[in-house]
Specification:
This protein is 76% helix and 0% strand. It has 13 helices and no strands.
Length: 238
């Protein structure tokens, strides 16, 4: 209870150490799964991702773990595996999650995680197929995962040097009114259009797209505008 109180208070370093001491002192405890998860959450909150991942992995291996706890532990395991560069492991974890917890509130999170892990494991074609499932699940629904799936599909095509397909994805994000509540991703999309145009040796068109970001009343306030300004400076000096 004291360890949980420290966690709720935001004293994550203290709660992590206390949960880990409990794990050491009571290796056969019936609460071991919960202690592992909370130790992982505590380490995750202070960005000690490798330690967090190991706790989540240990929790996920416990037999007859409460279903809700197993669901949370497996989701966190996939996230921390991806964050620590274990893309192959993350892929398997997310596939396991989607197979096991078909009605989970985190299904779209896991679907995106799977696609992103595939993309980062140099499997862009497979990633595109998974991103497509997010876009197809509810064509009228726009959430963060819709936006991210659209953007990352563009990135996959860009990395495959399929420039026309990449631009089509980024343009869709830029001009579709349903994405207006995600200005940071719209700004990134215009930035990527410029980068694709540079890859096609269309310097003047790329310059115009970078200027479009800087001159836009909303997009010009996003972080992508800083990158656009840097690229313009490089092009002028080059």
């Amino acid at each position: 209870q004291l360890a949980s109180a420290h966690y709720k208070k935001g004293d994550f370093q203290v709660s992590a150490e206390m949960f880990e001491k409990l794990l050491n002192d009571y290796p056969e405890s019936k609460l071991r799964g919960s202690m592992l998860f909370q130790a992982g959450e505590s380490r995750f909150r202070i960005k000690e991702t490798v330690l967090a991942r190991d706790h989540f992995a240990a929790a996920s291996k416990i037999r007859n773990l409460d279903e809700a706890l197993a669901e949370s532990a497996l989701m966190r395991l996939g996230e921390t595996q991806a964050l620590t560069g274990q893309q192959k492991e993350a892929t398997k974890t997310y596939e396991n999650f989607l197979s096991r917890f078909k009605e989970s509130q985190w299904t779209r999170n896991a679907r995106f995680g799977l696609a992103f892990a595939l993309e980062n494991n140099d499997k862009p074609s497979e990633a595109i197929r998974e991103y497509a499932k997010l876009l197809e699940e509810d064509s009228k629904k726009v959430d963060l995962w819709t936006v991210r799936a659209q953007f990352q599909t563009g990135e996959c095509y860009f990395n495959m040097k399929k420039y026309d397909q990449a631009i089509a994805r980024f343009v869709h994000l830029e001009i579709d009114k349903s994405f207006k509540k995600y200005p940071s991703w719209q700004a990134k999309s215009v930035l990527e259009i410029g980068r694709v145009l540079l890859a096609q040796s269309k310097r003047e068109e790329a310059v115009q797209r970078f200027k479009d970001i800087l001159n836009h009343p909303v997009l010009g306030k996003e972080k992508a505008a800083t990158v656009a300004r840097q690229l313009l400076d490089q092009l002028r000096s080059g």
